[in-house]
Amino acid sequence: MKKILEKWEKFMNEIKEARSFSSCVVVLNDEGKILFLKREDSAPSFPGAWGFPGGGSNEGETKEECARREMYEETGLKANNLTYIDESRNKNKSIYFFKCVDFSGQVDTKNVQKEHTDFKWVDPSDLDNYNIVPDSEPIIRKAFGQMIF
Length: 149
What we know:
Layout: H1 2-18, E1 21-27, E2 34-39, E3 50-51, E4 54-56, H2 63-75, E5 78-90, E6 93-104, H3 109-112, E7 116-122, H4 136-144
Parallel strand pairs: 1-6
Antiparallel strand pairs: 1-4, 2-3, 2-7, 5-6
Protein backbone atom coordinates (compact mmCIF):
# COMPACT_ATOMS: atom_id res chain seq x y z
CA MET A 1 0.00 0.00 0.00
CA LYS A 2 2.87 2.35 0.84
CA LYS A 3 4.36 1.86 -2.64
CA ILE A 4 1.02 2.68 -4.25
CA LEU A 5 0.74 5.88 -2.23
CA GLU A 6 4.30 6.87 -3.14
CA LYS A 7 3.57 6.32 -6.84
CA TRP A 8 0.35 8.29 -6.57
CA GLU A 9 2.14 11.19 -4.86
CA LYS A 10 4.85 11.17 -7.55
CA PHE A 11 2.18 11.15 -10.27
CA MET A 12 0.31 14.08 -8.69
CA ASN A 13 3.55 16.08 -8.37
CA GLU A 14 4.28 15.45 -12.06
CA ILE A 15 0.82 16.74 -12.98
CA LYS A 16 1.36 19.89 -10.91
CA GLU A 17 4.72 20.45 -12.58
CA ALA A 18 3.30 19.86 -16.07
CA ARG A 19 0.58 22.46 -15.47
CA SER A 20 3.14 24.99 -14.31
CA PHE A 21 1.75 27.76 -16.54
CA SER A 22 -1.27 28.63 -18.64
CA SER A 23 -1.67 30.24 -22.03
CA CYS A 24 -4.69 32.17 -23.32
CA VAL A 25 -5.52 33.53 -26.76
CA VAL A 26 -7.34 36.72 -27.69
CA VAL A 27 -8.87 35.67 -31.01
CA LEU A 28 -9.89 38.58 -33.26
CA ASN A 29 -11.93 38.11 -36.42
CA ASP A 30 -11.95 40.23 -39.61
CA GLU A 31 -14.69 42.43 -38.12
CA GLY A 32 -12.54 43.30 -35.10
CA LYS A 33 -14.67 41.19 -32.76
CA ILE A 34 -13.22 39.15 -29.90
CA LEU A 35 -14.03 35.49 -29.37
CA PHE A 36 -15.30 34.85 -25.85
CA LEU A 37 -16.22 31.51 -24.30
CA LYS A 38 -18.72 31.35 -21.45
CA ARG A 39 -17.50 29.32 -18.50
CA GLU A 40 -19.81 26.80 -16.91
CA ASP A 41 -21.60 27.89 -13.73
CA SER A 42 -19.71 25.10 -11.96
CA ALA A 43 -16.27 26.22 -13.18
CA PRO A 44 -13.69 26.37 -10.37
CA SER A 45 -12.64 29.90 -11.29
CA PHE A 46 -14.85 32.73 -12.53
CA PRO A 47 -18.00 30.59 -12.93
CA GLY A 48 -20.41 31.90 -15.56
CA ALA A 49 -17.94 34.53 -16.80
CA TRP A 50 -16.89 35.08 -20.41
CA GLY A 51 -13.19 34.50 -21.09
CA PHE A 52 -10.57 33.77 -23.71
CA PRO A 53 -9.75 30.28 -24.96
CA GLY A 54 -6.89 28.89 -22.91
CA GLY A 55 -5.72 26.60 -20.18
CA GLY A 56 -2.89 24.81 -18.46
CA SER A 57 0.25 23.51 -20.09
CA ASN A 58 1.10 19.90 -20.75
CA GLU A 59 4.52 18.54 -19.87
CA GLY A 60 7.19 19.75 -22.28
CA GLU A 61 4.99 22.31 -24.03
CA THR A 62 6.17 25.81 -24.82
CA LYS A 63 3.92 28.79 -24.07
CA GLU A 64 2.96 29.07 -27.73
CA GLU A 65 2.34 25.34 -28.16
CA CYS A 66 0.04 25.45 -25.14
CA ALA A 67 -1.85 28.43 -26.61
CA ARG A 68 -2.30 26.72 -29.99
CA ARG A 69 -3.45 23.45 -28.42
CA GLU A 70 -5.91 25.10 -26.03
CA MET A 71 -7.34 27.31 -28.78
CA TYR A 72 -7.93 24.28 -30.99
CA GLU A 73 -9.27 22.03 -28.20
CA GLU A 74 -11.75 24.65 -26.97
CA THR A 75 -12.86 26.15 -30.29
CA GLY A 76 -11.81 23.97 -33.22
CA LEU A 77 -9.91 26.95 -34.65
CA LYS A 78 -6.33 26.42 -35.83
CA ALA A 79 -3.98 29.31 -35.06
CA ASN A 80 -1.84 30.02 -38.13
CA ASN A 81 0.04 32.82 -36.42
CA LEU A 82 0.22 33.96 -32.79
CA THR A 83 1.62 37.18 -31.36
CA TYR A 84 2.75 37.35 -27.74
CA ILE A 85 0.94 40.09 -25.78
CA ASP A 86 1.71 39.89 -22.08
CA GLU A 87 2.19 37.79 -18.95
CA SER A 88 0.44 37.92 -15.60
CA ARG A 89 0.55 35.84 -12.43
CA ASN A 90 -2.33 34.12 -10.69
CA LYS A 91 -1.86 31.93 -7.60
CA ASN A 92 1.91 31.60 -8.21
CA LYS A 93 1.33 30.51 -11.79
CA SER A 94 2.23 32.48 -14.91
CA ILE A 95 -0.44 33.11 -17.53
CA TYR A 96 0.80 34.00 -21.02
CA PHE A 97 -1.46 35.88 -23.41
CA PHE A 98 -1.31 35.72 -27.18
CA LYS A 99 -3.24 37.41 -29.96
CA CYS A 100 -4.49 35.54 -33.02
CA VAL A 101 -5.90 37.25 -36.11
CA ASP A 102 -4.76 34.58 -38.56
CA PHE A 103 -6.66 31.34 -38.00
CA SER A 104 -8.34 28.58 -39.98
CA GLY A 105 -11.75 27.02 -39.54
CA GLN A 106 -15.01 27.90 -37.87
CA VAL A 107 -15.86 27.74 -34.19
CA ASP A 108 -17.00 24.18 -33.48
CA THR A 109 -19.85 24.11 -30.95
CA LYS A 110 -18.93 20.54 -29.93
CA ASN A 111 -15.43 21.66 -28.96
CA VAL A 112 -16.79 24.70 -27.09
CA GLN A 113 -19.30 22.64 -25.12
CA LYS A 114 -16.67 20.27 -23.73
CA GLU A 115 -15.68 22.94 -21.17
CA HIS A 116 -17.97 25.93 -21.79
CA THR A 117 -21.65 26.67 -22.31
CA ASP A 118 -21.54 29.17 -25.19
CA PHE A 119 -19.37 31.36 -27.40
CA LYS A 120 -19.81 34.80 -28.90
CA TRP A 121 -17.90 37.15 -31.14
CA VAL A 122 -18.10 40.40 -29.17
CA ASP A 123 -17.52 43.93 -30.40
CA PRO A 124 -15.19 45.73 -27.95
CA SER A 125 -17.77 48.50 -27.55
CA ASP A 126 -20.21 45.89 -26.14
CA LEU A 127 -17.92 44.52 -23.41
CA ASP A 128 -19.91 46.26 -20.66
CA ASN A 129 -22.83 43.96 -21.51
CA TYR A 130 -20.83 40.84 -20.57
CA ASN A 131 -19.52 39.46 -17.31
CA ILE A 132 -15.94 39.03 -18.51
CA VAL A 133 -13.12 37.48 -16.49
CA PRO A 134 -11.52 40.20 -14.31
CA ASP A 135 -8.49 42.01 -15.71
CA SER A 136 -9.32 41.09 -19.32
CA GLU A 137 -9.63 44.70 -20.50
CA PRO A 138 -5.90 45.55 -20.32
CA ILE A 139 -5.11 42.41 -22.31
CA ILE A 140 -7.74 43.35 -24.92
CA ARG A 141 -6.27 46.86 -25.17
CA LYS A 142 -2.82 45.38 -25.78
CA ALA A 143 -4.24 42.99 -28.37
CA PHE A 144 -5.67 45.91 -30.31
CA GLY A 145 -2.61 48.06 -29.65
CA GLN A 146 -4.71 51.09 -28.91
CA MET A 147 -7.49 52.54 -26.79
CA ILE A 148 -10.63 50.93 -28.18
CA PHE A 149 -13.30 51.60 -25.56
